[in-house]
Specification:
The protein is 66% helix and 0% strand. The protein is mainly alpha-helical and 118 residues long. It has a single domain, classed as Orthogonal Bundle (434 Repressor (Amino-terminal Domain)), CATH 1.10.260. The longest helix is centred in the last third of the chain and has 18 residues.
Length: 118
């Protein structure tokens, strides 16, 4: 079955949400009860998801299923509503900082960098 734009966009969204949550394909697969190869197929848009599977993805990623079913009848452009890969990486790394002072220090440093850059 050829990829459709909607299937490919859904797959991209799943990948981005998975990365933001700090999950591997294997951990998402475990939560869904499928193989990591199947998760790869969903993310690449090779396999279409049934509503049941989409519900499993949403539950595993702790997002509402409506994330995948916008009101306009299709998936929104990822760059309009969702994080880029760089943003997802930054957020994932930031969440790994466990000490509150380190997190606040990083935010303060980033603010300082932006002031210098302007």
């Amino acid at each position: 079955m050829p990829k459709t734009i909607e299937t490919e966009q859904t797959g991209n969204l799943i990948r981005r949400l998975r990365k933001v949550s700090g999950m591997t394909q294997m951990s998402l697969a475990d939560k869904m009860g499928v193989t990591y190869q199947q998760v790869q197929k969903y993310e690449k848009g090779v396999s279409e998801l049934t509503i049941r599977r989409l519900r499993q993805v949403a539950d595993a990623l702790n997002v509402p299923i409506s994330t995948f079913l916008p009101e306009n009848g299709g998936i929104a452009e990822p760059d309009a509503s969702y994080l880029t890969d760089e943003e997802a990486t930054l957020l994932t790394l930031f969440r790994k900082l466990k000490r509150k002072k380190l997190r606040q220090g990083f935010v303060d440093m980033l603010r300082d960098v932006l002031e210098v850059a302007d």
